[in-house]
Amino acid sequence: MSAQSPGSREPQLANYDRDFLLKLYAQILLIRRFEEQVKFLFLEGTMPGTIHQCHGQEATAVGVCTALNKDDFITSTFRGHGHALAKGLTPREMLDELFGAATGCCKGKGGSMHMGNMEKGMIPGIAIVAGGIPLAAGMALAFKMRKTSQVVACFFGDGAVAEGAFHEGLNMAAIWNLPVLFVCENNLYGASTRIDKVMKNIKISDRAAGYGFRGETVDGNDLLAVYEAARRAVGECRAGHGPVLLELLTYRRTGHSRRDACHYQSRDERDAWFSNDPIERFVQTLLTRSDIAQIDLDRVEAQVDHEVSDAVQQARRAPQPATNDLLRDVYA
Amino acid sequence: MKRQGIAESLRDAIAEEMERDSTVFCIGEDIAVPGGWGGAFTVTLGLEDRFPDRMINTPIAELGFFGVAIGAALMGMRPIVDVQYGDFLFLASDQIVNNAAKMRYMSGGDCKVPLVVRVPVGATGRGSQHAQNMERYFIGVPGLKAVAVSNAYDAKGILKSAVRDDNPVMIFEHKLLYGSKGARAESGAVDATSDIPEEEFTVPLDKAVIRREGSDVTILSWLLMAHFSMFAAKTLAGDSIHAEVIDVRSLSPIDYETIGPSVQKTGHVVIVEEGPKTGGVSAEIAAGLLERFGEYLQAPILRVASPDVPVPFSPVLENAYRPDSRRIAEAVRGLLS
Ligand SMILES: Cc1ncc(C[n+]2csc(CCOP(=O)(O)OP(=O)(O)O)c2C)c(N)n1
Ligand SMILES: [Mg+2]
Fold it and tell me: Is the CB of A124 less than 8 angstroms away from the CB of B69?
């Protein structure tokens, strides 16, 4: 994918392929635009349910998923729109799902918190905090037993670290050297509770040492840094040296879920993180390249906007499930 | 043909399924330890010699290894999970109820979870926390199937069907039925051996079975109570009371097709359950029968169950807790008098 030569830990921007970088830009922007549209539709009152959005955290999803192959798998959480888009689900199948339509990726039975698509390498999102962590270990166990070279990237938040499932899942992945990339998106808050209120050592990557594997803290708003770290970790997992814990430092720019005004976040903290936006930072980086100009980015942006608004138009008209679908898909 | 107990027939079934299908594997605590126990009840004893890479011994982490099993099932494996004592399912219940049972539905049929969970249950002199009849907690969870095995033939055939089923199946096994002789003999164990044919067979997951025919009353029970009901029926026959005994076997779904005609015939029903009366499986069966066959009932449905208390330790108290054939026979006489 990238033209980056293997082995070098400090990537030079110049070493990246231009098209690769523009593709990353399209992806990270797609997530932002998708989330903005969803928020609008939600506030407009046309979209049912609740939403947990990822504005401000887009680099984690794109950086990690770009380091994966199509047949690698991810597990996600209630805050999974970005992960799903980065793993290749289309805005169309996702928006249809958000509208509860029969044409959604889960036929309207999953909704915002349970989006997935097995063919694209994403099991349904797990909305129980940390619930996906043991699952990811088991998926990786299956890959190891069958001797495939697939890996699993398991996304979870800082809140999950306090759950027993985190401990049990990481420990089993460790003792069996499973090919799992544990990706902790540390956005400093679990719902309204700040991390330092519920954790004595807030450097989450330190936990890996307790289980006997490697952990690393990365600037989660630096897309290329996330990508490089994920690429190294995925390589280790494929070589049989997994698991790896990546802690990606980031910040949620939006409420925890619908209609959360975030009064528990200080103004200073918000200001600091708002000026550390992953997309703005990536744009600045891209524009230092002599072969990428604002007009190239504008072109990407126009495409992304078109794709999202097109999907919204379609989703508004997408067919609702028949009520007798209620009884289908309980058993295989 | 050979005579086997439940522990042995389950072991053979697991080995045959692992031989047949390389995606089948076992996972749980204290399995596959050389010189070890083969799980808490010897069921997987020695299988590690034949399948060294497919017997996964886990840390003591029920939530975690159930999640691991479900994750592997999602990726196309067919895990058989051993939970040592059914009581520990409470630690794993998030993974079972929120993930295994719902994954298919919430994905709109995109994925499947072919999982077998083996659950030893029953009061056996171990006090309150190694004793509960766990089936009640899972029969009302859509997406799960639940079966209870009361003899070695069923155990073998049902385990095979469960492994081949594409859904999560919970098999409830009774600790007093694994074997009444040798290493597995517990105090109070009951003979649940069967003649096991050499040739391959399966037993369906969704079928009750009539163990004894009779015209006066239908006794419905499962696991250890299926045996006690048979003892009671024998006693009652001495008083010219002809009880039909049905081993309910499939607890979710309940097989009303088999049970219904018996109720129509006898007009009298006694349901026997080990476990507290309130909120038990028998409550569900009673309601289901009333809805479907109420007009055939000549008397109210009677439940014989444990009182609403935790399982006690003292053998005297435990025997008072667990329904026995005398209480079953008394209930039938009371119903018919
Ligand atoms: C087991 C469980 N407990 C509580 C909740 C309610 N809940 C949903 S999200 C959330 C906070 C999670 O925080 P974190 O893991 O940091 O993820 P983030 O929201 O920051 O992405 C809570 C408490 C839940 N979904 N599951
Ligand atoms: Mg958080």
Answer: no
How far is Cα B237 from Cα B333, in angstroms, rounded to an integer?
11
> Is B2-196 assigned to CATH 3.40.50.2000?
no
pTM of the model: 0.95
Q: Does B77 contact A at CB distance below 8 Å? A: yes
Answer yes or no: is pLDDT of A5 > 60. Answer: no
The pLDDT, as a whole number, for residue A2 is: 45
Give residue-wise pLDDT tens across range B310-327. Answer: 999 999 999 999 999 999
If you classify domain B209-336 with CATH, what class do you get? alpha beta
Among B24, B25, B51, B63, the strongest candidate for a mutation testing the A interface, having the largest count of A CBs within 10 A, is B63
Domains parsed from chain A with CATH numbers: 16-314 (3.40.50.970)
Give the ligand at the shortest distance from the Cα of A128.
Answer: 1
Distance, in Å, from the CA atom of B279 to the CA atom of B190, rounded to the nearest integer, reads: 27
Return the pLDDT at B186.
83
Q: Which residues contact B137 (CB under 8 A, 6 or more apart)?
A: B89, B93
Interface test with B, best of A141, A147, A151, A176 (most B CBs within 10 A): A141
Angstrom distance (rounded) from CA A96 to CA A87: 17
What pLDDT shows up at residue A68?
A: 98
Residue A9 has pLDDT above 90, yes or no: no
Helix ranges (H only) for B21-151 are 47-50, 62-74, 89-93, 103-106
Residue owning tokens 């031989």? B19
Q: Tell me: the pLDDT tens digits for A192-244?
A: 999 999 999 999 999 999 999 999 999 999 999 999 999 999 999 999 999 99
Q: pLDDT digit string (tens) for A264-285?
A: 999 999 999 999 999 999 999 9
Note whether B167 contacts A332, CB cutoff 8 Å. yes
- Does residue A4 register a pLDDT over 60? no
- Find where tokens 């009361």 sit: B150
- Whole-Å CA distances, A56 to A44, A85, A267, B189, B232: 22, 15, 16, 62, 69
Q: Is the CB of A129 under 6 A from ligand 1?
A: yes
Shortest distance between the Cα of A149 and any Cα of chain B, in A, equals: 13
pLDDT of B202 reads 98
Asked if omega into A243 is within 30° of 0 (cis), the reply is: yes
Residue A116 and residue A151 in contact, taking contact as beta carbons nearer than 8 Å: no
- The count of CB pairs under 8 A between chains A and B is 150
Complex ipTM: 0.93
8 A C-beta contact, residue B145 and residue B115: no
Q: How does residue A62 score in pLDDT terms, banded at 50, 70 and 90?
A: very high
Burial class (CB in 10 A: 0-12, 13-18, 19+), A209: exposed
Where in chain B are all domains bearing CATH 3.40.50.970?
2-196
Cβ neighbours of A215 (radius 10 Å): 22
Closest approach of A200 to chain B, Cα-based (Å): 24
Whether residue B277 contacts residue B136, with contact meaning beta carbons closer than 8 Å, is answered with no
Domain span(s) for CATH 3.40.50.920 in chain B: 209-336
- Secondary structure element (H or E) that encloses residue A154, with its range: strand A152-157
Whether residue B106 and residue A104 make contact (CB cut-off 8 A), yes or no, is no
